[in-house]
């Protein structure tokens, strides 16, 4: 029988499967990193837009204040041209009302300046965090690409080993193994340990265990239909 060689081949196939699984996760990890960075960039863009909006609001309020102060000056200049008391009182009331409105504008501008200062701090912190995240993103990207390249190199070695081991197994047995590999989630041959199939956890009959230890015939699990291999034999296969 060629069970030991088949078991050794299964070990190689499992290594390849695991490497393919880990390599397949790399694009997902890259996408997650890009999404995380994108969220940070969106936050900074939003902060920058809010900062610019506040700056524009401040400039508009300062412009309105300046224009109103000019109007007050012109109105005050008219006082000396007024001839009636009624008109004089009306102009004074207009000036007082405008000055009151300007005081409110000045308070609004101070409030806006405080918001600008607060927003500036947030923006500075956001940009620093973004720069840090960008550097970390680039570092992890390089690391993942290097890992992918290492997988390719290591996997190529495992594939070569698999090809060499396949040459040692009769074609009919190898074809059976391949069919099981495809149907049974990449596991075609499993060990029996303490009388239990390690794939489906069914108890193997004592008589079948005796036959397994002899390793004279191909024995399939009566439950999951995988090729059974005695535990000691599999341990030996790992060392081949």
Can you put this structure into words, describing what you see?
By secondary structure, the protein is mainly alpha-helical. Helix content is 78%, strand content 5%. The protein contains 5 helices and 3 strands; from the N terminus they run αααββαβα. Strands 2-1-3 form a 3-stranded mixed beta sheet. Helix 1 runs antiparallel to helix 2 and helix 1 packs across helix 5. The radius of gyration is 40 Å and the shape is rod-shaped.
Which features does this protein show?
240 residues, mainly alpha, Helix Hairpins, 2 domains, 3-stranded mixed beta sheet, 5 helices, 5% strand, rod-shaped, disordered C terminus
Outline:
With 240 residues, this protein is mainly alpha-helical. The chain has 5 helices and 3 strands; from the N terminus they run H-H-H-E-E-H-E-H. It folds into 2 domains: 19-166, Helix Hairpins; 171-238, no CATH class.
